[in-house]
Amino acid sequence: MAKEKKLRVRKHTVVLNRSAGGDFGIFFFLAIMGIFMFIPMYYTVIQALKPLDELWAFPPKFYVTAPTLKNFKDLFRLMNTSWVPFSRYLFNTVVITVGGTFGNLFLSSLASYVLSKMYFPGKKWMFKLVETSLMFNAVAASIANFIIMSALGWVDTLWAIIIPAWGSTLGLYLMKNFMDSSVSDAVLESARLDGASELYTFWHIAMPMVKPAWLTLIVYSFQGLWNTGSTIYIYSEQLKTFSYAIGQILAGGIVRAGAGAASAVVMMIVPIIVFVISQSNIIETMATSGMKD
Amino acid sequence: MSDKVAQTAAVQPKKRAVSRKDMSKLRWTLKEMKNNWVAYVMLAPYYIIFLTFTIIPVFVSFGLGFTSFNMIEAPVWIGMDNYARLFLDDDIFILACQNTLIFAAVTGPVSYILSFVIAWFINELPPKLRALVTLVFYAPNISGSVYMIWQVAFSSDSYGWVNGQLLNLGLIDTPILFFQDANYVMPLCIVVALWTSLGTAFLAFIAGLQTIDKSMFEAGAVDGIKNRWQELWYITLPSMKQQLMFGAVMSITGAFGFGGIVDALAGNPSVDYCAWTIMHHLNDYGGARFETGYACAIATILFIIMIGSNKLVQILLSKVGQ
């Protein structure tokens, strides 16, 4: 009897809250926005697949009749004939991305464990400071950072990009919040009572419980570092990144229109694949991203 | 401050004979610090790097903002001269301020609201479809320099898609120079910025919406909530206030940081400085002219604007659902 009543209420809710007009409006809005978001991506891929005569057809077509991979071949030819070998740019980006991400992962998880699960004077304001730093864009600090880099002697070395990445704030923030809600104090306490060191508790008990958070941190760090373009800290051509070199081809204008689009496809494919693989973990982490007052 | 700390510390049971009241606050704090030295050691590597490259630059900028400094000779204290020059003598800075505020005032709120509305709309889709739609909306944000395609589509010859179609339909006789015409540069850059702006806030909203307890909506319906808009205001928004706060911070920070898009699309400097932002001004004086002191004053103003708008929005958001 009671169950029946509950069911009726639920049905009632659906009828009341979801008008057909509203559903249609939402669908319409999502469709328009989805098309707006998707078309530039689609157009990039189409441009990359167009043979030369279609690239310069008038009026420009929104589809490709004779798709070709020639643009990608052109791109690799351009890469091979560039002054600095392209493998060098790619190597720099891989070094930055891997070095920056792993350092960031290790130091941030260690720090978020401390800020979330240990007690010591100064803990509150230390995290507050990290939270506040999310409020300003790092670009504003670039001039002062340049002064600091030159004092450290890191100008024009890859350290200037890798080391600051180790102290980036968003990953720590997300991880600390995730630890707050998904690692129970009781489990850690019992490990401590058994005589486990803090480092052991961190690595063997807390870390396995926050897998979604460290995957998210890896993805964020990866995306940021993979897209590192030209910065004021690095001026030697040999130390510039893949994204910078791709940008040079992209900026090549008319002569390289096809190769430019191909390079954009190469550039976007990696972060998109990474996101597709990790999406559910990222969403799980974001569920605890809220900012407490 | 130290009172609070002492309270937090006192929560942790420790073997000790003396109680908090036996000694002064300072001594208690020092004792707690000594007992928990492991925490500081574990935190140190991250925190030292964080301080060096995120917090100290703010203070360095603030300090050097009062000096004349060119990176080679020692800084010379000149008081408020830099700020006087910025506001009284630098027309381009005033223009940059206007542009930055227009950019931020449009892209910040619009991207924030779009992030939320889209997340809210796709919340009821089946999980597989939702994941796909999420990818479509989020992809431009992570695809690096793909926004350059807008320059191809809006390029100033008949091979640009937009000009091509307009010429073909006979609406115009000569191609429009979209990225060389001051009338078009700002709106186009804003559109492109919005296109790339469904980022972290968007994901946080999707996640936040899924954590809301479904039984709240049923209870709400019983209590007389009539449509989805009331449901939004009385149940959904208040239940995800923390996500809303976090999303706001992400959107605002993003809204002040897309000088790169303008450079890539409209060139640097953009025609007649029509899309010149504070960020450009900063890089111009700091990177190209080596007037580092002056650039630091600009950076300080930028910090104040960013933190100020964040605080303002947080006050506004605390009113949600009340």
Provide an overview of this structure.
The complex is a heterodimer of chains A (293) and B (322). With 293 residues, chain A is mostly helical. Chain A contains 14 helices and no strands. Chain A has two domains: 2-68, no CATH class; 78-286, MetI-like (MetI-like fold, Orthogonal Bundle). In chain A, helix 5 (86-117) runs antiparallel to helix 12 (211-226). Chain A is globular and about 75 Å long. The relative contact order of chain A is 0.12. The model of chain A is unreliable at 1-16 (pLDDT under 50). With 322 residues, chain B is an all-alpha fold. Chain B has two domains: 2-77, no CATH class; 81-317, MetI-like (MetI-like fold, Orthogonal Bundle). Helix content of chain B is 70%, strand content 1%. In chain B, a hairpin with a 7-residue loop joins strand 1 and strand 2 (76-77). In chain B, helix 5 runs parallel beside helix 10 and helix 10 (200-211) runs antiparallel to helix 13 (241-255). Chain B is flat and about 90 Å long. Classes of the chains: A mainly alpha (293), B mainly alpha (322). Chains A and B meet through helix 1, helix 2, helix 5, helix 6 and helix 7 of A and helix 1, helix 2, helix 3, helix 5 and helix 6 of B.
